[in-house]
Structure to design on (970 residues):
């Protein structure tokens, strides 16, 4: 199969995945035992001290179903959904915060999620792989054992425990950072940028520590295996230095699976980091999804999940298309 | 310490102290002087739509709008349970015997925050807008299901006609408790918008209250209010000077972070912190106080109580003996100690036991409860429950100085509850053919397992979660195969509304009677809110009467209540008659008052409402907060 054929086939698969995933996404919230209209009517009744009569509630229910686009058969709603999402990228209004557009909510939340998770993911990947490479290449040295121990120590700790520990250490016992973020409002200034950075350090640190351990362990294992390859032995016999062998021979060849993992991780950042957002009061898409799932806000769920699907599918496509550039063996094949 | 160690420790210590100072320092995170800012944990957490402040659509009204921003014709005095005029000039004049026509006068000299005077034109505009766009707006049902017609008489006088007789006109056109039925809009701001009013965000709102919004977080975590210069001209400026220049509503996150922030004096009033977290915080910061220094420590005067609701329309919950057996098999003393550290106030009536409701319902019904007898002559009420609870708490090591004595025991722990008597429960069940099988669990008369599904909140309501878990365990120990199911908020709602799903749950919405006006809550006990027992969420939803009351006697009493002024003695008497039937039949199992765990921090502000300084309920999301705001004083720190 030529290159053009490979690319065409891969892109066709990409669109097929998107279509199927979006269709499944439409159905999933409908299967939840939650109804968005019920949630709001319950809230209204509570505020009205249950003085709403049945006729009034029936009228409200009718109005809400119409405003929320829940009228018509499931198939009609599905077609309307596909049309809006695929051709207009419009997820409609939030049910919970009607008539606030879902796209506005996501547009507000995604930069925060991307900023924090992108940075934390890349730092954890770079640091973890660097440490893992050294630990794997020099695996017979005692220092390598210590480095591996760091990974073993961090990796199994549940994220919640890690995050709370970080919070208590650096926001309570040594109150260097705030317990909950307070981001300034208004136009972006240097001061505001600094405050955002400052308030993001603690959640970022927790995320880096959480991802750090796995990267160390996985890169160490890959580095050990790659170090035993004949071409590495040949390079050593040729007289190349340890640094050259470690970086140009071992790291480059051990890197491929880690690149795949990184690409998929970057795609997954659009799921948000729910626990991080909850524990550190950080605005992001995770908390929005959680609230939407709890309240049956279908449109917000569609929007958030669709963004995540798009990101992960695109990441996978990019990996598939760029892999041949990284690995000559695949290019030849 | 070595010299190197000193060089490292000194800056670290300095940094710690410096940042500690910042943590509780002179300025708040939003740039206001801490000594002039009252900081409150939001009731409903973070909102995802903070810029939406148009009360015609759904919005996060519990971040100051209800207490500080809007104003109402009549408010509720939470200390007495009596309505009082806020913007209205006195109480409405009733114009006909049917109680459907009313003349309302408003006080001249009330001004919006932009300097325009509040007049009847604003009221007319609000009502007409609600009706005109009723199918495009999501928050106007209160208006359109209540009013029939309206007429301006002059700038300060309006006459309205209601659809039905409205003996509770003051609380429906004004306020009952935390709810705010009708919010008045500034005509001069909204009218020029025309049809755009349905999507107008109103995120720089013109307000009637003594505070305006200075700033808000576009991410929905906080909202900052600033006192108006002309606060005396606001809707409730006549209450007194609001003391804090700024009030910040902020979501401090999970209980873990909130407790740490509270200890660090980062805020002043919390909302529904768990009892043990409060104790832990108090151990680290003596400025943190509960409502009372003795048991049950927290305010127990919420309008609502918690109870177990059964699906009285389906088997086996339609068996009276089963419901009574469940009541007698619940060791509420142990459940209350396990789930709430003993900090609870039980009640056997479907009305919370408060200083307002006690003289109306609880005191007059003591003889009824004491004399209540089941078919076999058994008297189920234990009027020594409160005393026994005190003894048990002493035996478990609670400091006697923190326990009430004498008359204080009844004030703290109520008049009593049902006896814990699984043996009697077993007798009751045997009388209807329900007996224990070889596995120790009860079985139906035909030998099939008696499995009871008990749905209760998950961690969105931590205290109810703990309570539900403990109750399920207590029942299981008594031989009931109770399947406890923790459900998320949305599912909890849908479950309660769907006959085919619902079996039994723990909730509060059928027990929200704040004063003699029981109709405000129990008007939903009508045949209109009864659906077929097998109705599903696909075809029909129940939007009221979640206790599934289907007793005609109760329906008749409720209907009679619609024709009596709410302050008439007959009204209270009808309320007592309704409760007698509910209790005799055990249509629901009331448990306790809602423990409103609202700790305060007296580092920066003092004078909060407390048991020994009771001028209002301690809630920050009711009218009571208006009283708090004019009564507290800065400490000067």
């Amino acid at each position: 199969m030529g290159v053009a054929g490979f690319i065409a086939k891969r892109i066709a698969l990409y669109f097929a995945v998107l279509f199927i995933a979006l269709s499944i996404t439409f159905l999933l919230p409908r299967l939840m035992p939650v109804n968005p209209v019920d949630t709001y009517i319950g809230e209204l009744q509570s505020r009205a001290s249950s003085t709403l009569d049945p006729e009034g509630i029936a009228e409200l229910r009718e109005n809400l179903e119409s405003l929320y686009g829940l009228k018509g058969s499931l198939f009609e709603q599905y077609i309307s959904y596909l049309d809006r999402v695929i051709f207009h990228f419009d997820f409609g209004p939030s049910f919970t915060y009607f008539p606030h557009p879902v796209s506005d909510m996501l547009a507000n939340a995604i930069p925060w999620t991307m900023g924090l998770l992108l940075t934390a993911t890349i730092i954890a990947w770079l640091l973890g792989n660097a440490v893992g490479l050294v630990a794997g290449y020099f695996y017979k040295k005692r220092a390598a054992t210590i480095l591996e121990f760091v990974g073993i120590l961090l990796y199994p700790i549940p994220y919640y425990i890690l995050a709370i520990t970080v919070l208590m250490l650096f926001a309570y016992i040594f109150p260097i950072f705030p317990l909950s973020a307070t981001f300034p409002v208004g136009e972006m200034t240097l001061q505001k940028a600094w405050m955002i950075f400052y308030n993001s350090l603690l959640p970022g640190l927790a995320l880096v520590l959480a991802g750090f351990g796995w990267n160390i362990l996985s890169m160490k294992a890959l580095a050990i295996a790659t170090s035993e390859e004949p071409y590495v032995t040949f390079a050593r016999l040729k007289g190349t230095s340890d640094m050259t062998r470690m970086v140009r021979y071992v790291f480059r060849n051990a890197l491929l699976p880690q690149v795949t993992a990184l690409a998929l991780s970057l795609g997954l950042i659009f799921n948000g980091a729910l626990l991080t957002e909850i524990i550190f009061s950080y605005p992001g898409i995770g908390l929005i999804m959680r609230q939407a799932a709890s309240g049956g806000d279908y449109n917000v769920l569609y929007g958030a999940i669709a963004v995540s699907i798009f990101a992960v599918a695109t990441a996978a496509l990019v990996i598939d298309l760029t892999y041949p550039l990284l690995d000559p063996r695949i290019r030849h094949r | 310490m070595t010299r190197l160690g000193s060089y490292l420790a000194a800056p670290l210590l300095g940094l710690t102290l410096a940042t500690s100072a910042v943590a509780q320092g002179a300025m708040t995170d939003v740039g206001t002087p801490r000594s002039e800012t009252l900081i409150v944990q939001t009731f409903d957490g973070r909102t995802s739509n903070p810029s939406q402040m148009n009360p015609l659509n759904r919005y996060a009204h519990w971040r100051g709008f209800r207490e500080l921003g809007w104003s109402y014709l009549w408010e509720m005095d939470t200390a007495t349970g009596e309505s009082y005029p806020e913007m209205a000039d006195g109480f409405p004049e009733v114009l006909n015997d049917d109680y459907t026509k009313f003349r309302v006068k408003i006080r001249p000299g009330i001004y919006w925050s932009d300097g325009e005077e509040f007049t009847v034109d604003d009221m007319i505009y609000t009502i007409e807008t609600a009706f005109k766009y009723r199918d495009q707006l999501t928050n106007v049902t209160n208006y359109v299901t209540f009013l029939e017609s309206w007429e301006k008489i002059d700038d300060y006088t309006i006459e309205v006609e209601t659809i039905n007789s409205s003996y509770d006109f003051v609380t429906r056109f004004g306020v009952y408790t935390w709810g705010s039925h009708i919010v008045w809009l500034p005509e001069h701001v909204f009218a020029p918008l025309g049809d755009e009013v349905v999507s107008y965000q109103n995120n720089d709102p013109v307000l009637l209250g003594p505070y305006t919004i200075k700033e808000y977080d576009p991410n929905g975590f906080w909202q900052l209010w600033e006192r108006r210069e002309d606060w005396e001209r606001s809707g409730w400026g006549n209450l007194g000077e609001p003391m804090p220049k700024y009030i910040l509503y902020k979501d401090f996150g999970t209980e873990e972070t909130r407790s740490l922030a509270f200890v660090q004096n980062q805020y002043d009033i919390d909302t529904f912190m768990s009892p043990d977290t409060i104790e832990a915080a108090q151990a680290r910061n003596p400025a943190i106080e509960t409502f009372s220094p003795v048991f049950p420590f927290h305010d127990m005067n919420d309008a609502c109580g918690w109870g177990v609701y059964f699906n009285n329309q389906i088997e086996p919950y339609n068996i009276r003996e089963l419901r009574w057996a469940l009541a007698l098999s619940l060791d509420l003393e142990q459940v209350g100690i396990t789930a709430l550290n003993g900090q609870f106030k039980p009640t056997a009536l479907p009305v919370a036991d408060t200083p307002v409701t006690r003289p109306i319902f609880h005191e007059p019904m003591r003889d009824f409860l004491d004399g209540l007898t089941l078919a076999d002559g058994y008297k189920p009420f234990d009027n020594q429950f409160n005393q026994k609870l005190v003894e048990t708490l002493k035996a478990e090591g609670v400091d006697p100085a923190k326990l009430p004595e004498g008359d204080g025991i009844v004030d703290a722990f109520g008049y009593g509850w049902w006896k814990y008597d699984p043996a009697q429960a077993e007798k009751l069940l045997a009388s209807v053919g329900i007996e224990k099988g070889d596995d120790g669990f009860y079985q139906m008369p035909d030998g099939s397992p008696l499995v009871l599904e008990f749905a209760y909140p998950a961690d969105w309501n931590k205290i109810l979660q703990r309570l539900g878990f403990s109750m399920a365990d207590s029942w299981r120990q008594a031989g009931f195969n109770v399947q406890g199911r923790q459900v998320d908020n949305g599912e909890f709602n849908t479950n309660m509304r769907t006959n085919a799903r619902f079996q039994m749950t723990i909730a509060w919405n059928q027990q929200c009677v704040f004063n003699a006006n029981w109709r405000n809550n129990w008007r939903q006990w009508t045949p209109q809110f009864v659906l077929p027992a097998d109705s599903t969420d696909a075809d029909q939803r129940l939007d009221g009467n979640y206790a599934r009351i289907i007793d005609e006697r109760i329906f008749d009493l409720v209907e009679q209540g619609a024709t009596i002024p709410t302050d008439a003695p007959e009204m209270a008497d009808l309320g007592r008659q309704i409760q007698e039937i509910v209790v005799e039949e055990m249509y629901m199992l009331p448990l306790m008052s809602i423990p409103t765990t609202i700790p305060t921090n007296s580092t920066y502000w003092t004078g909060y409402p407390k048991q020994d300084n009771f001028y209002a309920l301690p809630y920050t999301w009711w009218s009571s907060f208006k009283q708090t705001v004019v009564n507290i004083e800065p400490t000067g720190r």
